[in-house]
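note to self — DONT lose this again. spent like an hour looking for the file last time. sequence + predicted structure for the chain T wanted, 275 res
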Amino acid sequence: MRTLTEEQGEPTEVHTKPRIYLDGFPKSGLHLAVLMVRTIEAQAALDPPWTGSFGYNAWSTEWRPIPQIMAGLRQLRNGTWLKGHLGYRPEIEQYLYWHGVAFCFVYRDLRDVLVSQSYHVISEDDEKFYHPGKDVFRAMGHEERLLACLHGIGPYSGLFDRWELYAPWLHVPWVHHLRYEDMTTDRAGVALGFVRYVFERTAWGVTNAELVASSMERIAEAVANNMSITSMSPTFRKGGSGGWREEFTSRVKDEFKAKAGDWLVRLGYEENDAW
């Protein structure tokens, strides 16, 4: 960015490093956002670069103590980033806003989210993907497992019970929203919007700051190029959109509709509930 002071009389280029938090409703494709942010900032604030708000690896609605959540977020410094599954609380939002964090919320068609979860809970690598009750899920048929993920079972909360705790981020005006389907079909546009947002938040509070358009475009091009490396995600399975059509039975479809209400319309995935 450039800044202009009365003493200098002309712009001076300054380099200010952002602090970025990537929030995603599991499983909405947070891995793509990570590829984007690593192009801008390689250094994470924690190792591993993860801090979130819910117990049972974010598959529950059980909030971790707020002081623990805030302790993780306080590790964000200029030039670092973090990711996680972070529910909405006003005090969390205010902290992130006043500390100039560029906060991005990743979401996806909730039908594809359900399918992705149903495979994730039976993943073979128990060390990387620890979840309680895997044997229970593995003993289920596919339809039964989808319904268990939808409604909840044991320590796992239902899909929409969890979604309601993240959804308020969609209504926070200063938060940048990343829709997974756009990230896979319009990489250049999404990358440019992401880069502009990150550096606008970074410039927030800097007197007479002016972003350099050519620099934004150059960085955005690099971000878009790196978004194609999907193999970097350990949880990546297919990454497509609309796969729920091959996975949903009529029963799953009916029970999903009963739970979803008008969410698919509000998120722009359907015009009505006649899908």
